Amino acid sequence: MKQTFTLLLFLIISHYSFSQVNHEIRWTIGTSEPYIKGSSIMTTSDSHISYRMKKVREASLKYITQVKDHTYLETGITYLQGNVTIDYVSWGEIYKRSSGTLQLLSIPFFLNRTFGKYFYISGGPTFDFHLNDEFSKDYSGIGAVLGVGGMYRIKNLTFYLTPKVGKKALWRPDINKVERKLTELNIEFGFGYRLPSKQ
User: Fold this and answer.
1) Residue 131 dihedral angles phi and psi, to the nearest 5°
2) Do 57 and 29 meet the contact criterion of CB atoms below 8 Å apart?
3) Which of 120, 134, 174, 187 lies at 20 to 30 Å from 66 by C-alpha?
4) 114 pLDDT band (50/70/90 cuts)?
5) Selected residue with higher pLDDT from 9 and 147
6) Residue 149 and residue 114: Cα distance in Å, rounded?
7) Where are the domains of the chain?
8) What local confidence, expressed as pLDDT, does residue 159 receive?
9) DSSP letter string over 140-196?
10) Separation CA 18–CA 14 (nearest Å)
11) Is residue 188 left, alpha or beta, with left meaning phi > 0 and alpha meaning psi from -120 to 50?
């Protein structure tokens, strides 16, 4: 994990130091409505375990660099946290309930494309790392995100509002028989600061 962050920071600093194009640092926060595929797992013919998630929040620090007209590359770090309730059900009755917190750290690699002055589309893979082990579901792996949003620029500041859909654990190195994918319907708000272009 530390090696990944160090490499990411080195690439960002190196690219900015030697590049002549536009760069932006962006801060965003978001909230999402989650859906867990494989959220109900049968343990016997008359009992199962049910997972429910709510109050999912995200915070991101992003770096965006221009690669050509209207086209940008985006990376950074996103922290996600959500409350998870686990119900143990037998014969239709809950006989045990526990709760925990899901914590994920994601590194996105997105391609952004702007349309006119006020709209853009953004999407690509995310590399997700599960940070805690309060419950058995591990969403580490490679996911994907797609968003279509609006933006408004005031000099070097840009404000963003972006609805997104994302999936965690589309690919995992240790695929289990039971698929457990997390889908998010997310709305994200933030602002970016465009760094001065190097002459």
Assistant:
1) -95, -20
2) yes
3) 187
4) very high
5) 147
6) 9
7) 2-195
8) 97
9) -EEEEEEEEEEEEEETTEEEEEEEEEEEEEEE-SS--SS--EEEEEEEEEEEEEEEP
10) 6
11) beta
